[in-house]
Amino acid sequence: xxxxNQAKRKLKKQKKVAKERRDVGRRQLxxxxxxxxxxxxxxxxxxxxxxxxxxxxxxxxxxxKEGCGIYETRPDICGKFNxxxxxxxxxxEDRPDKIGVVFAPSNGVVPFTGEEExxxxxxxxxxxxxxxxxKIAKRLAKGGALVIALPHETTGTFxxxxxxxxxxxxxxxxxxxxxxxxxxxxxxEP
Length: 190
Ligand code: SF4
Ligand code: SF4
Prior knowledge:
By secondary structure, this protein is an alpha+beta fold. It has helices spanning 2-29, 43-46, 76-80, 96-99, 131-142, 164-185, and strands at 63-64, 67-68, 101-105, 117-122, 146-150, 159-161.
């Protein structure tokens, strides 16, 4: 009986901690107004744009000094994209071109955990190790989100930050996804 009560109390406490983490995460991701990109064009270089066949880490051919050269007819996906800084995450000094990292909701191509996932694209090598970027990543991870770190100019290499159980799940799913991709890349028998 005593053991049962202890187990119930433990479960209740775990649920409370999980809820607090979720709430912190939600508060951190709360859209508190749209900031103008102003001089930043980082996402046009680091993110892949499928309708344009633009791979990640390659500057978009339509990017010019003034910004997007095809602004009126740019793909929908470009018009709808908001990085988390633009949505209010971090300070003004944390703009992606300044810290060298774009934090954005996961595009879900690989569902690592199927829950709240945030991609952190490095625009410059090692930028995620910078104090401001790392502070944001740690804050998000502490809030319960899975942060998927995408090192500069690498594809298929993921580093994870977040709650231990989510990181573990994500690592397993990343390995499975890599295995599947390798199998698909194998030449088929004639
Ligand atoms: S990275 Fe964010 S702030 Fe920079 S151009 Fe893209 S949406 Fe705007
Ligand atoms: S089409 Fe325009 S908005 Fe889209 S990636 Fe290229 S430059 Fe950026």
